[in-house]
């Protein structure tokens, strides 16, 4: 499987960044045209859309609350843990992309300091699912960035060879990513543009992660079984964290993530001992 990933990964071509950078430029121009390059106006131009999407999407609270947890790397990455054994190239790119995504996310949130919906609107005027978030770190959506960073790695790592299948594959992953990302509006945690901008930055992070890994290969050690104890330790810690989440909130997505991680822990431990 790792050979498949290596053979299908993209060459480091900057043109793959043209579209997301163009979309960000387009959004910036739109905000400038609407005189919305300040906090009050930024929130104001999407207030109606926020209330509309929040009211419609929140009609399925259990589904939305489970899906939104996938924006948490501690819940999402266990679903990819098996690739440590069968496609370590995926994890090599994930490490680089996740670091880039984390840097972009922290810098952006500190720079823009946009208050979250619950810090601006009457909390009785829209639906809040789960914990009420009232910080001033709404832009961009970190969950959306995590989702699209990860999906971008998978999209290019397992890209089909035929063009017609590539279109279906890419469209499907982007659609899935947007469905999960917009749960952040459904649970009342973000404005629509927070999600869209976060998704675009997540895609850029994924592409840069692939480029960096292909050029410098700084995570080559992931390929070697002698380092499996590192992952065995990380997986064990992840299992404890997920058990704590299950105890506190008892969501089905936590159970699924937990089962996947336990399975991966067994496989990687068996592979290491067998050597």
UniProtKB/TrEMBL annotation:
Supply one GO molecular-function term: hydrolase activity
> Which Gene3D superfamilies does the entry link to?
Phosphatidic acid phosphatase type 2/haloperoxidase (1.20.144.10)
Q: Gene Ontology cellular component?
A: plasma membrane
Keywords, ordered alphabetically = Cell membrane, Hydrolase, Membrane, Transmembrane, Transmembrane helix
Give the SUPFAM superfamilies listed for this entry: Acid phosphatase/Vanadium-dependent haloperoxidase
User: Does the entry feature the keyword Transmembrane, yes or no?
Assistant: yes
Would you tell me the protein name for this molecule? PAP2 family protein
Q: Which organism is it from?
A: Chryseobacterium phosphatilyticum
